[in-house]
Design a protein that fits this description.
The chain is mostly helical. The chain is built from 10 helices and no strands. It has one domain. The longest helix is centred in the last third of the chain and has 26 residues. The chain starts with a helix and ends with a helix.
Amino acid sequence: MSWWILGAAVFAAWTIDAAIGFGSLVIALAIGALVLPLDVIMPVLVPLNIILSGYLTVRYRAQIQWPLLLKQLLPLMLLGALVGLLTRDFFNAQTLRLLFGSVVVWFASRSLWFAFNRTARAHAHRGWVTSLLTFFAGITHGLFASGGPLLVYALTGVQLSKQHFRATLSLVWFALNSGLTLWYGLNGSAFMHVNKTLLFIPVVVGAIVFGEWLHHRISEDVFRKVVLILLLVAGVLLLVK
């Protein structure tokens, strides 16, 4: 039953990401961690994200902001992810779960505040603060494959169109998750449930197709708020369970 729940979470999360452009891993991990340990589901879900991020990278490659990507995002994120991977064994499963739940609750709460308060404005960070937050986003990605919330916060005030932002971050996730998948392959964890990963590939492909279809037929604003509320609930459950 736990794997059926994870499969449903994968379909929902990848559909949401394809439809409104954020959160496939965060959403799937937040739901999946309620029924399975993070160290079990991460090697299953991270390779699946390569399909979506690779698709978005190829499709929107003309909109990638290469100077920002190569000079700041990739170096700091890769370095942070390596630190996260090397220090992960210092945390037990319960601590990782609480850390991840805290990140989810913070991200969902902050996003909902700005979604429901149109007059609220996020202030741009100073350059060194942006770099430091980007590095810590890499650490959270190495710890639990969810650097997105902190990276989005780090880039507050960076002048990018929605299209440029999505395309550039898609390549970040493609690179980082390819590296994580290689890491899981080298330590053997990628092969523990490789049958589940292969089984979920058609689920991901179907979710991408369905999400692209929904993208042109739904109110993104309403859909985003509903998703954030559900993500907030999942984060709270991770903290109290």
